[in-house]
Structures are given as structure tokens and as C-alpha cells.
Write a structure and sequence with these properties.
Helix content is 75%, strand content 5%. With 401 residues, the chain is mainly alpha-helical. A three-stranded antiparallel β-sheet has the order 2-1-3. The protein is extended.
Length: 401
């Protein structure tokens, strides 16, 4: 909970601010630890309806830059409190600046860095917090934040490239449907009136086009309402656990795109596991954390089952063998080699690099194929539509001559 407070310091200077705490008593104790005398404190009300969560989101790129800056400051022997205070004052992202200020307040109250970061799960994942905790225990925080920056940067580049590769075809398809809709509602009715007034018997494909046009003119508004309602229903479904699982399964079943996402998730799993095992996090804990940040409910369930298998005494590779459909045999075999040779971390790094390259190649191939396929499909669609209407008009003009 967030509390607004009014307090004075030991010099009598009034301080106004906010503090995040589980309850009022903990908030007051935290302020007293900072040497403040609390005058008044109250829980902040709910956020304004107009303050959408979208504008409060901290992009991954900002977290990458932040991690790199923290690593540099810690390497220069700057204290944690001073580092977060400096970064809060210099960052341009207001939501992130607010969170860094709160982290600085928590550090001043005696909370550990990992504990302060854990209060902001929307920015710092369980993976991130556990890595920082290991860095605190080993005394290598600057190296830990450097590893985190490198890891997040790899994930950011991979995710961005995948997302950007899919934006173009989605945009083209949406534009195609908008253009076709306008053709059926605005253009075709005017041309079909000329054909019907001529008294000639149009070919079957022209009749189909005219019938579709009449349908959209008469019931287009209802179709639009149906699409909006369907979109809202899908959006609400995507917010439920069952809906998320269904969408993730559907995403993996789409030809070409499914393989792209599968390689993306495998690369993320291998990269996460390599980073955490190299940092000294136990394998079961590493699997659990990876399941929470892999980004797919399908692979999350697989990793949960793998973690249970490892807890019961199975080898990591053996636990994966039960999911041969989602996890390719080459990955299982390489993990087995890593276990036998004691170089599991290095093997996972190799797998991560391999699948990252696979994703890059798949994206390049997909983008290379999408453009000509889209041009052909769109050209055929528009061409068939125009020919269906213009040919009867052309025949009519020829008959008049």
C-alpha cells in the first residue's frame, strides 16, 4: 500500500512524500528509521480513472539502460542509496523515476536491494530479483547488474525483432480488409446499379460480388458491432488463465509462426537457465523462476512439471524427455551431455545462441516470403473484385457501340 506522509527532520525542515509499506505501522517505522518525525500519514486513494496503466508501464529498454547504469555506479564504488537517488533524479521515464525514489527510500529504511526491488514486480521480475539477491550474497553486485543488462538486452532484441516481423503482415491484412470493405459498401453499389439497370444477365461471379455488396450495405453495421463484441470477448478471454493457455497453444499451432515462437521460448529458457546456473542459483529454483518469465503458459506448465521431476530425483534432461513434442530431441540430448560432462551452463549458453540464430533466420525467411505472398494475394483479391464488376460494364459499353 502507498501512504502519503507529512514529517519533519531533525533540523525541523518539513518533508512531504510517499512510502510503500504493507500497513500503516510499518510505514511509520520506516519513516522513523530515516530520522523523520511523522506529523500525519494516510493511505493514498485509488488512482484516477483517467490514469491508464499503459502510461505507467516501464519499457524493457529502460530497465536495460538502468541495469547498465547501476553496474557502472557500483563498479565506481558508489553506494546503493546514492546510486538509486542519482538515477531517480536523472531518468526521463517518470514511472521509473517514481519507483527508483521508492527504492531509495526503502534502502534508507534498511531494506536490502533485492527486497526493495521485489516490491515492484511489474518492473523487476522474480528472475531479476533473485539474480540481485545472489549478487548481494556473493558481493558481486556490479557484475550481477552487468549480466542482467546483457541478458535483458538479448531478450529485448530478440522479442523486438519477432514482434516487428509480425507487425507488417498484420498491418497489410488489416488494410486489405478495410479497403475491401470500402469497395463493397461505397464503390460496388454504384457500379452494380449500372449493370442491373442495363437489363443484361451478369455472370455468376458478378452476382456473388453484388450479393456480398448488398449484404454489407444492409447489415454492415451489425457485422461491425459483432466484430467489436467479438474483440471485447477475446480481450476478456485473454485476461483469464484458461484464455491465456488457449491463446498460447493457438500461437504455437500456427504454421511458420508457431515454429518461430517455439524457438523464441526455447532460446529464452536456455538463456535464463544459463544466466542463473552460472550465478550459483540452484537448478530447481532456476527452473521455477524461468517458468515465470518464459512468456508462454504452455512452456510454463512444462517447466513446472520438469521442476517437480527434478525435485523427485530425475535428471534435468530426463524430466524434459516427457515433453518431446514441445522440446526438440537435440536440446534434450545436449542437456544430457552437459550433465554428464559437468558443463551444463556452457551447453545452455550454446543452445541459447543456437536458437537465437534460428529465430533470426526464421524471421528473415518469414519477412522475405511475406512480402511477395501478400502482394500476390492482395493483387488477386482486388483484381477478381474489379474484374467481376468492370467486365459486365465493359461488355455493356461494347454493345452500345
Amino acid at each position: 500500500m502507498l501512504f502519503k506522509y507529512k514529517a519533519v527532520d531533525d533540523k525541523g525542515i518539513q518533508k512531504l512524500g510517499e512510502i510503500d509499506a504493507q500497513n500503516r505501522d510499518i510505514a511509520i517505522t520506516g519513516l522513523q528509521h530515516r530520522g523523520l518525525i511523522v506529523i500525519s500519514i494516510e493511505e493514498e486513494g485509488k488512482k484516477s480513472f483517467l490514469k491508464f496503466a499503459f502510461f505507467e508501464k516501464v519499457p524493457m529498454k529502460s530497465v536495460v539502460i538502468l541495469s547498465r547504469q547501476i553496474s557502472t555506479l557500483f563498479g565506481a564504488q558508489v553506494s546503493a542509496l546514492k546510486a538509486f537517488t542519482m538515477l531517480a533524479a536523472s531518468t526521463e521515464n517518470k514511472p521509473l523515476a517514481k519507483k527508483l525514489t521508492e527504492i531509495g527510500d526503502d534502502l534508507q529504511a534498511g531494506i536490502s536491494i533485492s527486497g526493495a526491488l521485489a516490491k515492484h514486480p511489474d518492473v523487476f521480475s522474480d528472475f531479476y530479483v533473485n539474480m540481485v539477491k545472489v549478487g548481494e550474497e556473493t558481493g558481486k553486485l556490479n557484475e550481477t547488474f552487468d549480466h542482467l543488462a546483457n541478458y535483458l538486452n538479448r531478450q529485448y532484441e530478440l522479442t523486438s525483432k519477432t514482434r516487428n516481423a509480425l507487425i507488417y503482415p498484420i498491418f497489410v491484412v488489416c488494410t486489405f480488409f478495410v479497403v475491401m470493405g470500402l469497395m463493397f459498401v461505397v464503390v460496388i453499389p454504384k457500379l452494380s446499379a449500372i449493370i442491373l439497370d442495363s437489363g443484361q444477365d451478369p455472370p455468376i461471379y458478378t452476382k456473388i460480388v453484388i450479393a456480398l455488396s448488398n449484404f454489407f450495405v444492409s447489415y454492415g453495421f451489425l457485422v461491425l458491432i459483432f466484430l467489436v463484441l467479438a474483440g471485447v470477448w477475446l480481450w476478456r478471454l485473454s485476461k483469464t488463465e484458461k484464455g491465456k493457455i488457449y491463446i498460447d497453444k493457438m500461437r504455437l499451432s500456427i504454421p511458420a509462426v508457431g515454429n518461430l515462437y517455439r524457438r523464441l521460448y526455447l532460446s529464452r529458457i536456455a538463456d535464463n537457465m544459463d544466466t542463473m546456473l552460472t550465478s550459483g542459483i540452484p537448478i530447481v529454483r532456476a527452473i521455477d523462476i524461468t517458468s515465470d518469465v518464459v512468456g508462454s503458459r504452455v512452456y510454463k506448465e512444462i517447466l513446472k512439471e520438469v521442476a517437480d521431476g527434478v525435485k523427485s530425483g530425475l535428471a534435468f534432461s530426463v524430466a524434459f524427455e516427457k515433453h518431446a513434442e514441445e522440446v526438440p530431441g537435440i536440446m534434450i540430448q545436449m542437456i544430457k551431455v552437459g550433465e554428464e560432462t559437468g558443463s551444463l551452463g556452457q551447453i545452455l549458453k550454446t543452445l541459447s545462441d543456437f536458437y537465437k540464430k534460428e529465430v533470426d533466420d526464421a524471421i528473415d525467411t518469414l519477412v522475405g516470403l511475406i512480402e511477395p505472398v501478400m502482394i500476390v494475394v492482395l493483387g488477386l483479391g482486388v483484381g477478381i473484385l474489379l474484374v467481376s464488376v468492370l467486365m459486365p460494364i465493359y461488355n455493356l459499353a461494347g454493345g452500345i457501340q
